[in-house]
Amino acid sequence: MTSRRIWIGRILSFVPGLFLVADAAMKLAKPAFVVEATVKLGYPESVIVGLGVLLLVCALLYLVPRTAVLGAILLTGYLGGAVATHVRVGDSLFSILLPVVLGALLWGGLLLRDPRVAALFALNRGTEHRTSES
């Protein structure tokens, strides 16, 4: 992996990571607009702090290189729930696509900065997938 590719991956990872940490912090602080938005989405106020803790743990796991893959998997589930919630309440296309874009940035950044993930997706040069014929 080239140094340039790794740095691009780090930047792509940092952007959604920072956004998700900030979102988690807002859930933990529970300002009125967060409570209002959460209730509008059909969730009781009592779950906001729990969602914030969950999101913070997942985002921190993602930002630490050693646990980044686990964090990405957990955040994919979290963001999938966000998409489902916005679809269920009939939110705008932007609200539905934002978690999808964040997920794509998470995985794209991880793919560029982690050779194990790149190998998993067989995007390394020289890696060929051959099938045996019977």
Q: Would you write up a description of this structure?
A:
The protein has one domain. The chain has 134 residues and is mainly α. It is elongated. It has helices at 3-29, 32-40, 48-63, 68-88, 93-113, 115-120.
The description of the largest β-sheet is: none
How widely separated are the two ends?
36 Å
Give me the number of helical elements.
6
How confident is the prediction overall: mean pLDDT?
Answer: 91
Envelope shape: elongated
Q: What is the CA-atom radius of gyration, in angstroms?
A: 17 Å
Number of domains: 1
Order of helices and strands: HHHHHH
Q: Which structural category fits the helices and strands?
A: mainly alpha
- Give the strand tally: 0
> Ranges with pLDDT <50 over ≥5 residues?
none
User: Hey, roughly how much beta strand do the residues contain?
Assistant: under 5%
Helix content: over 70%
How would you concisely characterize the structure shown here?
The chain has helices at 3-29, 32-40, 48-63, 68-88, 93-113, 115-120. The chain has 134 residues and is mainly alpha-helical.
